[in-house]
Amino acid sequence: MVRPHTMKILITGGAGFIGANFLNLLVPRHPEHTFINLDALTYAANLRSLGAIEKLPNYAFVRVDLVDFEAVRATLTKHRPDLVIHFAAESHVDRSIAGPRPFLRTNIEGTFNLLEACREIWTHGQGLFHHVSTDEVYGSLGADGLFTEETRYDPSSPYSASKAASDHLVRAWGRTFNLPVKITNCSNNYGPLQFPEKLIPLMIQNLVERKPLPVYGKGENVRDWLYVGDHCEAIWTVVQKGKVGETYNIGGRSEQRNIDVVKQLCAIVAEETKASESELLGLVTYVKDRPGHDLRYAIDAGKIERELGWKPRETFATGLRKTVRWYLDQQDWVASVRTGEYRRWIEHNYGGR
């Protein structure tokens, strides 16, 4: 790689939840780097999430679908990034069950296209491809144990299967073509700018609107929660300090049953809005469990903590309260995403690209 103070960094999926948080954190902090945001602007992307950085001189946006290889190749040939951080993915499990095809195209074919474009622009030893993935590739845990970097892959859903395939592609391109690669597998992210189809923002918004709080099964599925700001810091740490060819698991050490997450949200929203907590708890509605619903995920983040010195700063309690306050304060952002206003704006401004 080139020296850090001269890097061109291409981010895929930078208008999505994690990518936007990453760019908002890193672009102002590192004016010496140039950041190029490549995003297809699908339903969960929102350029309004990048309003604070959109006019900064070290930031640029280009609308490209990763499935379009010629467009991907042209973009990378034009910008010739030194570092690619690959956030872009279809990521909602329920959507993958209802319609798997977009997940296979974006997560597998899109990753393949990006790897091939990187292979064309980088000569031997140049560049770095950092692939952002999920703990869902490992499947389901029982009551005990943790996912490590050596855990066997055992995906359960079309989404996790597509992400597992993309992980394997990245490793194969590293081993076969000597492409410099790193992979991170993270636990469930939460925080500002998350599209309100995921558990925590959905529950917050339903609480605000006094709508039912749908909980799968008995709510006993366990997830390890990671505040998105901590995840972004971890990725940057791996980019700077991690070993090429290595995988690093990133977790928040915050295991929670889904029903307990919902109850905590009821308590925080009640406190923040002066509502009745018992009234909000009465909105909990148990619904039929989804197919292949993994019981428990839990990350062993010991490797990144020992070798690279990263640890999460937020506890689940502090991160959850920050998240609730953000959504309560950003109802205009939520409304623009949910009403279709934002989609109309996208097509008006970017429909020809």
Give an account of the 3D structure.
Strand 1 (8-12), helix 1 (17-29) and strand 2 form a beta-alpha-beta unit. The longest helix is centred in the N-terminal third of the chain and has 21 residues, at 101-121. This protein is an alpha/beta fold and 353 residues long. 44% of the residues lie in helices and 16% in strands. The mean pLDDT is 93. The protein has a seven-stranded parallel beta sheet with strand order 3-2-1-4-5-6-10, sandwiched between helices. The chain has a domain at 4-194 and 226-253 and 292-314: Rossmann fold, CATH 3.40.50.
Topology of helices and strands:
Layout: E1 8-12, H1 17-29, E2 34-39, E3 59-63, H2 69-79, E4 83-86, H3 93-98, H4 101-121, E5 128-134, H5 158-177, E6 181-186, E7 188-190, H6 199-209, E8 213-216, E9 222-227, H7 228-241, E10 247-250, E11 255-257, H8 258-273, H9 277-281, E12 284-287, H10 302-308, H11 316-329, H12 331-339, H13 341-350
Briefly summarize what is shown.
This protein is of the alpha/beta class and 353 residues long.
